[in-house]
Specification:
251 residues; alpha/beta; Rossmann fold; 2 domains; six-stranded mixed β-sheet; 36% helix; binds adenosine-5'-triphosphate; binds magnesium ion
């Protein structure tokens, strides 16, 4: 557990290259407890690479990376159960029902079956899938499958939730309601969340803070978003244009 005041994610002067392709350089940022932070950047700017470094699937070449007080790559086991990840595709197992998919993480962590089933059902209710628990993935819409995936991610009560453009394959209205529901659940349960997207609207809708990744030079722009910005069309569009200009400048 991270002590109050300690960031859940802390990156300092992080560098990552694949061969001669230097994808990340001089990257510094923190994500505090309960914060929802969006990482924006053009395609190929290294967003998924940052997420992979944070979840410990690949090491940084240089710099320091701390997640919930541990090095996610070298101390991978310490983050067991503390970190939940949801990807672009929902990755549900087709032979398991919605509730059987949702409870997977709990069973892996050793929770007794009956208790896991009960917790998974509670989370299916929270993501508005009451009554759909016994359906198989092929019987669900894309948006419903993403909701199962979210329930699966959240039901282990993770300290940190990482999302990689989880809602981008859905139609606009579906992804918009899903985003709003996710943000309200994350706030209600004080979840810390880093999510990656190249859609400025997604970022402004969900996040408390947006970071724009500049390839090779860290964070090019950092902006806080609050209700007063979200509710003012004028301020929203001004901020949108400002972010777009910074993202565009990296082309
Ligand atoms: N495992 C890898 N091996 C070699 N190169 C890689 C690897 N992973 C990523 N890259 C390269 O790193 C760069 C950044 O990739 P990354 O997937 O992080 O970008 P992204 O910002 O997530 O893009 P998108 O918006 O398209 O998802 C690209 O040039 C990519 O080719
Ligand atoms: Mg990506």
């Amino acid at each position: 557990m991270s002590a109050a005041g300690n960031p859940v994610i802390e990156l300092r002067d992080v560098r990552k290259a694949f061969g001669s392709n230097v994808v990340i350089e001089r990257l510094d940022f923190d994500v505090g407890k309960g914060e929802i932070v969006a990482l924006l950047g053009q395609t190929g700017s290294g967003k998924s690479t940052v997420l992979n470094i944070v979840m410990g699937t690949i090491p940084a070449d240089a710099g320091s990376v701390r997640v919930a007080g541990s090095d996610p790559y070298r101390q991978f086991a310490r983050l067991r159960g503390k970190l939940a990840v949801s990807f672009q595709t929902d990755r549900l197992l087709p032979w398991r029902t919605a509730v059987e998919n949702a409870e997977i993480g709990l069973l892996v962590l050793g929770m007794p079956k009956a208790k896991a089933r009960q917790v998974a059902r509670t989370w299916l209710d929270r993501v508005k899938l009451t009554g759909a628990g016994d359906l198989y993935p092929h019987q669900l819409s894309g948006g419903m499958r993403q909701r199962v995936s979210l329930a699966r991610a959240l039901c282990v009560d993770p300290e940190l939730v990482l999302l990689d453009e989880s809602f981008s394959q859905l139609d606009h209205v579906t992804s918009q309601t899903l985003r709003a529901d996710f943000a309200s659940i994350a706030r209600e349960f004080n979840k810390t969340c880093l999510f990656v997207t190249h859609r400025i609207d997604d970022a402004m809708e969900m996040a408390d803070r947006v970071l724009v990744l500049r390839p090779g030079a860290g964070i090019a722009l950092e902006e806080g978003i609050d209700a007063s910005i979200r509710s003012s069309l004028q301020r929203r569009s001004a901020l949108h244009d400002k972010i777009a200009a910074v993202m565009g400048a990296e082309a």
